[in-house]
Amino acid sequence: MSYKTHLQKDLKLAALLKEDTHALKRRKNIPIRLIASIVSQQLSTKVAKIIFDRFLGLYNGKEPSCEEVLAIDPAVLRSIGLSNSKVAYVQNVAQFFLDHGIMDKQLYKMEPEAVIELLTQIKGVGRWTVEMLLMFSLGHENVFAVDDLGIQQAMIKLYKIKFETKKELQLKMLKKSESWSPFKSYACLHLWKWKDTQAPV
After folding, report:
1. Residue 92 pLDDT
2. Are 114 and 164 found together in one domain?
3. Within 10 Å of residue 67's Cβ, how many Cβ atoms?
4. Shared domain check, 130 and 53
5. Residues whose CB falls within 8 Å of the CB of residue 138, separated by 6 or more in sequence, listed in order
6. pTM of the predicted model, to two decimals?
7. Quick check: 27 and 136 in contact, CB under 8 A?
8. Which tens digits make up the pLDDT trace of 106-123?
9. What total number of domains does the chain contain?
10. What average pLDDT does this structure show over 29-38?
11. Mean pLDDT calculated for residue range 14-38
12. Which one of 36, 116, 118, 173 has the fewest CB atoms closer than 10 angstroms to its CB?
């Protein structure tokens, strides 16, 4: 069964599925993917790309190893536009992967919640950051980013969700997303795309 066939059972979501067909895939060098996510925190996509390109530029455009990340002077990382806290978080990721001997293939085999539990031990890495990693780097098809502002805004608008507290909103979102399993990640991708193409309210 294609994910669209399954998600079309949600009639409101079905209207969002007509144009694009998304694909999720595994990527290599997961610690660098996680570092890229940290770089992008609280930044626009455009600015995040500029800074991450500068980061790669420190290594002649190639993705560095964790050892190479730790070997560079923190002042050099700050010079490309990273805050003091992000410099620390980037180094935390590299150190954690080295200390625990974590390999890409190990993460590919783990269940999403196990990956979240493991990587959120790193200071500077929260659940949302790992959820993005699960979707876009580990290729998991059934991840629902309930804390993502874009997903929240899209679902409020699409389903006309009424709520008084953040917790109430999240509970209603989680209940709505249950029927999307095992393809929640694709629902998120279509919700993001739909939100980005909507005119401001």
Report:
1. 98
2. no
3. 9
4. yes
5. 26, 27, 30, 107, 108, 115
6. 0.91
7. yes
8. 999 999 999 999 999 999
9. 2
10. 95
11. 93
12. 118
What pLDDT is recorded for position 43? 87
pLDDT at 152: 97
Catalytic residue at 10? no
Contacts of the segment 111-114: beta carbons below 8 A, 24+ positions apart: 112/140, 112/142, 112/143
Backbone CA torsion sign across 116, 121, 127, 131: negative
The candidate with the shortest Cα–Cα distance to 82, out of 28, 112, 42, 25, is 42
User: Phi and psi dihedrals of 85, rounded to 5?
Assistant: -65, -40
Mean pLDDT taken over the chain: 94
Domain holding 163, by residue range, is: 3-23+145-197
C-alpha angle with apex 154: 89 to 149, nearest 5 degrees? 20
Contact present, 128 and 33 (Cβ < 8 Å):
no
Per annotation, catalytic residue among 10, 20, 73, 148: 148
For residue 9, the 8-state DSSP code is: T
